[in-house]
Task: structure prediction
Amino acid sequence: MTLARRALLLGASALWLPSRARAGAQVEEPLADSVRTALAASVADAAPPKPRFDTVDARLAHLRWLGTTSERLKRRKADHHTRVEFLEAIWYESRRAGLETSLVLGLVQVESGFRKYAISSAGARGYMQVMPFWARLIGDGDPRRLFHLQTNLRFGCTILRHYLQRERGDMFMALGRYNGSRGRAEYPALVFGARRQWQVTLPA
Result:
């Protein structure tokens, strides 16, 4: 089987993965002081509790996205309040980091199966399977906070953006670095496949 065909099959299978943590051995790498300072400032910056919009149309588009995505997520998160809180947080944090929200949702699906308290065999924690060493490098040193909804999403999105910058905009390589499997096709294919489930086409 060719690598391309294998990647396509793996991507399609992502929609049917069981809820389990799939984080790899994400590598702790030395950070330049300027990078560490910038990342620490990014995760420490307070976020507004609710999204803000400049126009009514933007607000309506967000509500349509929220309604559609909430319906798709219902079988994984039955409680309406919990589901909406999660979606609003991931919408805000992904956009804040300049990431596509559907891609981040796909990453969460692959990494943790949308389980808040997931822990991988490598010790990664929460929705986005953040390794505890990040709490020491750019946080307050307390890895228990990585189970907090917004803290976990803030760290995960900030780390993925950092890796994307390191890989000069190559999301395939950035995802591999995030998972600790840089250069291999399996993990990016799973995330790209899961992303398709969360893409929402809104009316013009």
Remarks:
- Residues 120 and 172 are 22 Å apart (CA to CA).
